[in-house]
Write a structure and sequence with these properties.
Blueprint lengths: L4 H7 L2 H15 L4 H7 L4 H8 L3 H9 L5 H10 L6 E4 L5 E4 L1 H23 L1
Antiparallel strand pairs: 1-2
Helix pairs in contact: 4-5
Pfam families: HTH_37
Protein name: Transcriptional regulator, XRE family
GO molecular function: DNA binding
Length: 122
């Protein structure tokens, strides 16, 4: 016998409903990269245009399980987001790692230098 979810939810205690809602929010906060892009309403083509790459490069990136932090950061920024690296420890403390902000500046500088060299070489 098939039961409607709304009917089952009505039978749940308020505590169980709160736990269920919290779990649903937690699951929505943990998405693979391609689902983040889709949730932001962007196609691979649009993201590729923003990143100044071809669409297959975005598809390939979204399938990777290992990538440079700078690559992930630029992908997130192209979607209008901001990437934070946070270490969580068993004692419950969280530490935001900020070393990568300097890395980002270095990458941007190197990209500009490379583009300048390429355009003067043409």
């Amino acid at each position: 016998m098939v039961k409607k979810f709304s009917r089952l939810r009505e039978q749940m205690s308020s505590e169980a409903r709160e736990k269920s809602q919290a779990k649903a929010q937690e699951m929505l906060a943990e998405l693979p990269l391609h689902e983040v892009r889709q949730a932001r309403g962007m196609t691979q083509k649009v993201l590729a245009d923003v990143l100044q790459v071809k669409q297959p490069a975005v598809a390939k990136l979204e399938k990777r399980t290992d990538m440079y932090i700078s690559t992930l950061r630029s992908h997130i920024q192209a979607m209008g987001g901001e990437l934070d690296i946070i270490a969580r420890f068993p004692d419950g403390s969280n530490v935001k790692i900020d070393n990568f902000s300097e890395l980002e500046k270095d990458v941007q500088y190197n990209d500009k230098s490379r583009r300048a060299k390429t355009s003067t070489a043409s």
